[in-house]
Amino acid sequence: MNQRLQRLADQIQRTVATLIRDEINDPRLTGFVTISSVKVSPDLGYADIYVTILEPSQDGGMNREAHQESLKVLNSAAGFLRTELARTMKTRTTPRLRFHYDEVTAYGNHMMNLVGQAMQKTQESEKNYLDDGDE
C-alpha cells in the first residue's frame, strides 16, 4: 500500500472509531468495538474495516457467530458512517465502508490466553513439586 493510501486508511480508522463510539447508539451493538486495521482499495472505491468486538458475555472472544449481530449493525450503519466520514475528510470521493470480523487479532488474543493459562499451570505444578520435596 502506498503512502497516500496508508494515510487515508489511518484517517478513516481514527474517524470511524470515534463515530462508532459517539454516534452509534444501537442496543444490538453490545460489545466494545476495536478497529484493528483499514485497507483502502487503490481506486478509493472501498475501505475494508477489520474489527474485533469484546462482548461482555464472551470470555474467550473466539466465537465468530457471537459477533455476527454486531457486524450486521456496523454494516447497516456503513452508509451513515460514510456520510459522516465525508464531512470530515478532505477528499473528492469517500470509499464505501465494509466491516469484517478480524480473526487474526481474535486468534492472537486466544493464543495469548492459552499461553497465560499454561504458564499459570506450570507455576502451580512447580510450587507443588517444591512443596512435596520439602517434606
From TrEMBL:
Its main location: cytoplasm. Keywords: Cytoplasm, Ribosome biogenesis. It comes from the Bacteria. Pfam families: RBFA. InterPro entries: KH_dom-like_a/b, RbfA, RbfA_dom_sf. It is found in: Cytoplasm. Gene3D superfamilies: 3.30.300.20. Monomer. Binds 30S ribosomal subunits, but not 50S ribosomal subunits or 70S ribosomes. HAMAP family: RbfA. One of several proteins that assist in the late maturation steps of the functional core of the 30S ribosomal subunit. Associates with free 30S ribosomal subunits (but not with 30S subunits that are part of 70S ribosomes or polysomes). Required for efficient processing of 16S rRNA. May interact with the 5'-terminal helix region of 16S rRNA. Belongs to the RbfA family. This is Ribosome-binding factor A. It comes from Moraxella canis.
